[in-house]
Write a structure and sequence with these properties.
Low-confidence stretches: 242-256
Number of strands: 10
Shape: globular
Mean pLDDT: 89
Helix content: 25-40%
Distance between the termini: 40 Å
Largest sheet: 4 strands, parallel
CATH superfamily: ComB-like
Order of helices and strands: EHEHEHEEEHEHEHHHHHEEH
Strand content: 15-25%
CATH architecture: Alpha-Beta Complex
Strand order of the largest sheet: 1-8-2-7
CATH topology: putative 2-phosphosulfolactate phosphatase
Radius of gyration: 17 Å
CATH class: Alpha Beta
Length: 256
């Protein structure tokens, strides 16, 4: 395939801004570090067959009534009537292997549904950073990183992660646009102490108030998984890769 001379990468800091960037013909990386895309990456790495992201609680409840596993989260809390919320530790369970999950979250699943008209939608997190960047560098499409933010507003953790992607791929993409420059500048400023910087983030404070500190620590670990969730139709599935669960569990247990 003939490679174009320049492919562009941009950062959309909120799902509400997606129409201003457009997704048609692009590869979209949906990001919700705390915690939706980290959960999706974990679930598929541990053998979940597929994940159906939906925007509303009503849609998720309808899947639950059909017999699907169903997870619903709003404002950091599990929605009443659902067995699962938005903690990645929930999905480190071999009994979920081969099953299908319907999920709705405050921000992340909305970002996915708003990106569905893209050429391809993949899921990004610190947990699978290299899988994401390797894929982006191998394909010949413009890229839009869609940060889930918080209720339509920018958040720090997703923007820092977007900057981490740009840091790795910047030699193979045109990053001469304000959104990419800003995300990279923020990441470059805090790269030596991302965890320390994100203590200031509003959603980190929100989750700590709900006593979810271990989820925060877990979601900021880099490259625990060699897995790339991809949206196929209405379902997220893992593109073919291998994951070493024993190594992962040792890292999680040791808090690396």
């Amino acid at each position: 395939m003939h490679m174009r001379e320049v492919k562009t990468i941009e950062v959309c800091t909120s799902p509400e801004l997606v129409p201003f960037y457009g997704v048609e013909g692009k590869v979209v990386v949906v990001v919700d570090i705390l915690r939706a895309t980290s959960c999706m990456t974990t679930a598929l790495a541990f053998g979940m067959k597929s994940i159906i992201p939906v925007a509303t609680i009503e849609e998720c409840r309808a899947y639950k009534e059909k017999g699907y596993l169903a997870a619903a989260e709003r404002d950091g809390k599990t929605v009443e009537g659902f067995d699962f919320g938005n903690s990645p530790y929930t999905y480190m369970d071999s009994s979920f292997k081969g099953k299908k999950l319907a999920v709705t979250t405050t921000n992340g699943t909305l970002a996915i549904t708003k990106s569905k008209n893209a050429h391809k939608v993949i899921i990004g997190s610190f947990l699978n950073l290299s899988s994401v960047t390797n894929y982006l560098m191998q394909q010949d499409r413009d890229v839009l990183i869609v940060c889930s933010g918080w209720k339509g507003k920018l958040n720090l953790e997703d923007t820092v992660f977007a900057g981490a992607i740009i840091d790795i791929v910047k030699d193979t993409f045109n990053t001469d646009n304000d959104s990419a420059i800003a995300a990279y500048a923020l990441y470059d400023l805090v790269r030596k102490d991302i965890k320390g910087f994100l203590k200031k983030a509003s959603h980190v404070k929100r989750l700590k108030g709900l006593n979810i500190k271990r989820d925060i620590i877990y979601c900021l670990q880099v490259d625990l998984y060699n897995v790339l969730p991809e949206l196929q139709g209405d379902e997220l599935v893992a593109m073919p890769t291998q994951t070493t669960h024993n190594t992962i569990l040792r890292k999680v247990a040791s808090g690396v």
